[in-house]
Design a protein that fits this description.
- The protein is of the alpha/beta class.
- It has a single domain, classed as Rossmann fold (3-Layer(aba) Sandwich), CATH 3.40.50.150.
- The protein has 10 helices and 7 strands.
- It is globular, with a radius of gyration of 18 Å.
Amino acid sequence: MSANETGTNYSIRDEIREFWSERAASFDQSVGHEIFSDAERRGWHRLLKKHLGPGNGRQALDLASGTGVISHLLHDLQFSVTGADWSEAMLEQARAKAEKRQADIRFIMRDAENTMEPRSSYDVVTNRHLVWTLVDPVAAFAEWFAVLKPGGKLLIVDGNMGRKTWVGKLSEALSRVTGKTAARSHLPPAMMERHRSIRSRVYFSDAMPASAVVDLLIDAGFTDPVVDRKLFAINWAQARKMPLLRALDRLVQDRYAICATKPL
């Protein structure tokens, strides 16, 4: 179905949900989605503990949880985890994985921009690679602020992937010379085109510098934002599992974590 069809209520939000639902079955096969090394897992644990502290049974809401990768990392650290996603196909994968690993993680279908979760009920809210997909980040950040307890922490892991790196420019130059398209994505061409189409119509359709995200978080009421670009352990572990150009691109991209606090 196309968002350009007339006479329907099919929207960009529906298209996003449909895209990720179609990705669900193969999502965990991709480096950068599931974790394929102990080194990467340790890197994620260090990042989460650095910004969120120990779990100690505290309540965590993992938004756009997908197949539950970040949810399981939080569970490893003894958080009481709720994973929320808008795609039932993703949730089916997440629940099956949790059952296999005997992890008591609650997975629910929710819209990240309107979770319908109780106000002031979570100690931490996390998400990975969600912010770039938001149609209305102002509404989303207000929602995340509302579900956090006073003193609670928000951790966003994302990046300015709309900014073309020197690796991307080199790849395009090589393609022009050789007449071959360099594979810098794990997606097939048709899916990659849909990905580009979606990106062109969301709020951060071009670039997404950390400073722009921070500004919106402050407007939503968050305080003490910290931008952390020290993600080398994670990026290096992922790059080692990738083809050369994708690996180089991963290492030079502007990837970051942003942690912010709801005031007491």
